[in-house]
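Supplementary notes for students who missed Thursday's class. We covered one full example, reproduced here. Read the sequence, then the structure, then the short commentary at the end.
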Amino acid sequence: MDLADPRWNTSGVPWHALYFKGIYARLQRVKAVWDPQDVFRHALSVRASD
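Structure (token representation):
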């Protein structure tokens, strides 16, 4: 969860870019199809939009 906390992630790079690298937008599209109700989630899960 430290990646999403601006007190710890001072890199200027969004947490999802560090965690998921370059596939975050694709993962968001997949999530929209397979989990539109956001049932499967945790602090650093793919979000519907950022």
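Commentary. The chain has a mean pLDDT of 88. The chain has two helices and no strands. If anything here is unclear, bring it to office hours.
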